[in-house]
């Protein structure tokens, strides 16, 4: 592809999205530019504070447990009280919690603060996803989620460069920098981002009022819950990038610097290719995209069984990264499509729970398989889970009306009380 074609693809990828989206995108980028504490927390607890590896694992589990609770709680709050107050509250709480973590020394209070950090940092995700679905028209949602995903990875890639040097000088300063960046993110939301929650429409004269969307409504939605289960399988495989992969590389004689280099391949590919790839995937059949991406992720990790050198490990990362780049925005767009407008927060919250739960299960499962059966069985298991997920997505999407996303066209929008726009597309179930 020529440089001119790449420029044209990039321009088309960012054109036509509402201004409110770009302020939300900016807040995501600012947030991720400062989000690095969790990356170094285990090293901080063991090397700086002389706690055991078991204690560091306990704190990580408590953070994950907080994330599972926050995913569902954040979705309920976003629907009940609004996306903006939920997002603001979560970001302010995250900023305060990270700042406290810089100064607490007692192991009990570190654990409590870690749990609170898991709650605060994950409560904003359903609100962000629901807000994007509110303000972006259906035909552009996959593109919007893809751009937001790109911002997350760009911010992480940049923060990873300077964070290592920063915490090498002072973990306290590093924690305070993250707290300050998260507070700046909250300021962007407070000043520029408006509430987008759709107002509940009045029933047509003579028609029975529709039942409110509750968490029970979400959990009884069989099609959606099947999608959440499939997302969990993909997430369990993907989480091995931070669990099984580093352990196996270390056992094969590679250093921590080598692990870092291989991990950087993931971020570099996403930053370089996510925007051009967006134009390719946004008009494709989501069923085929999710099926294909699940196979890429599963078998990309399975290829690790044949890796031995730095280059071959990097090649396997490139394979499953391509699957990740297709899967993440497509799946987020599908969640927005399946959710009724007044229940988007709850639906996004339950979907986010699949990743939070995988963060709890995958380290335990991966470690157990490595200890009891060996690396070969771990990578074979990744292939099996990827295959099951692919088959599940194929069956899930077979009965979904209008599988191919609509082409861009003017859509009917209704202005909310605060000036934000919300689509009036009905739920597909």
Describe the 3D structure.
The chain has 16 helices and two strands. The longest helix has 29 residues, at 107-135. 75% of the residues lie in helices and 1% in strands. A two-stranded antiparallel sheet has the order 1-2. Helix 4 packs antiparallel against helix 5. With 429 residues, the chain is an all-alpha fold. 49% of the residues are buried. It has helices spanning 3-14, 19-33, 37-48, 53-80, 83-101, 107-135, 141-169, 171-192, 215-219, 222-238, 244-251, 256-281, 286-302, 310-338, 344-372, 375-398, and strands at residues 413-415, 421-423. The model is unreliable at 406-429 (pLDDT under 50). The chain has two domains: 19-198, Growth Hormone, Chain: A, CATH 1.20.1250; 214-405, Up-down Bundle (Growth Hormone, Chain: A), CATH 1.20.1250.20.
Which helices and strands, and how do they pair?
Elements lengths: L2 H12 L4 H15 L3 H12 L4 H28 L2 H19 L5 H29 L5 H29 L1 H22 L22 H5 L2 H17 L5 H8 L4 H26 L4 H17 L7 H29 L5 H29 L2 H24 L14 E3 L5 E3 L6
Antiparallel strand pairs: 1-2
Helix pairs in contact: 1-12, 2-7, 2-8, 3-4, 4-5, 4-6, 4-15, 5-6, 5-8, 6-15, 7-8, 7-12, 7-14, 10-14, 10-15, 10-16, 12-14, 13-14, 13-16, 14-15
């Amino acid at each position: 592809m020529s440089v001119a074609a790449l420029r044209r693809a990039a321009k088309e990828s960012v054109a036509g999205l509402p201004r409110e989206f770009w302020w939300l995108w900016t807040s995501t980028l600012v947030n991720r530019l400062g989000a690095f504490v969790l990356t170094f927390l285990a090293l901080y607890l063991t090397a700086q504070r002389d706690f055991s590896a078991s204690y560091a694992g306990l704190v990580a589990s408590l953070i994950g447990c907080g994330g599972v609770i926050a995913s569902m709680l954040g979705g309920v709050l976003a629907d009940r009280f609004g996306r903006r107050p939920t997002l603001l509250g979560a970001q302010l709480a995250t900023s305060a919690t990270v700042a406290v973590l810089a100064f607490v020394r007692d192991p009990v209070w570190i654990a409590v603060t870690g749990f609170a950090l898991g709650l605060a940092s994950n409560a904003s995700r359903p609100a962000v996803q629901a807000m994007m679905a509110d303000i972006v028209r259906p035909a552009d949602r996959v593109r919007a989620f893809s751009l937001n995903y790109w911002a997350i990875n760009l911010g992480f890639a940049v923060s990873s460069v300077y964070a290592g040097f920063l915490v090498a000088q002072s973990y306290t300063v590093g924690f305070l920098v993250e707290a300050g960046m998260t507070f700046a993110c909250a300021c962007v939301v407070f000043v520029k981002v408006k509430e987008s929650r759709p107002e509940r429409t009045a029933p047509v004269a003579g028609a029975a009022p529709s039942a409110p969307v509750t968490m029970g409504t979400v959990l009884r939605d069989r099609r959606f819950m099947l999608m959440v289960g499939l997302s969990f399988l993909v997430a369990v495989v993907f989480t091995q990038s931070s669990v099984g992969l580093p352990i196996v590389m270390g056992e094969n004689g590679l250093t921590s610097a080598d692990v870092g280099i291989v991990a950087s391949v993931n971020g570099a590919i996403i930053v370089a290719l996510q925007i051009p790839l967006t134009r390719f995937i946004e008009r494709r059949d989501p069923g085929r995209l999710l099926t294909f991406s699940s196979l890429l992720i599963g078998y990309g990790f399975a290829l690790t069984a044949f890796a031995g050198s730095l280059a071959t490990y990097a090649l396997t990362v490139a394979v499953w990264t391509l699957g990740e780049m297709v899967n993440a925005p497509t799946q987020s767009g599908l969640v927005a499509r399946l959710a009724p407008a007044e229940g988007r927060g709850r639906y996004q919250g339950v979907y986010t729970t699949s990743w939070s739960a995988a963060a709890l299960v995958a380290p335990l499962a991966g470690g157990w398989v490595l200890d009891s059966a060996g690396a070969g069985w771990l990578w074979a298991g990744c292939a099996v889970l990827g295959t099951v997920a692919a088959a599940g997505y194929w069956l899930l999407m077979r009965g979904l009306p209008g599988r191919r996303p609509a082409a861009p066209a003017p859509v009917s929008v209704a202005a909310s009380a605060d000036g934000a726009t919300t689509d009036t597309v009905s739920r597909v179930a």
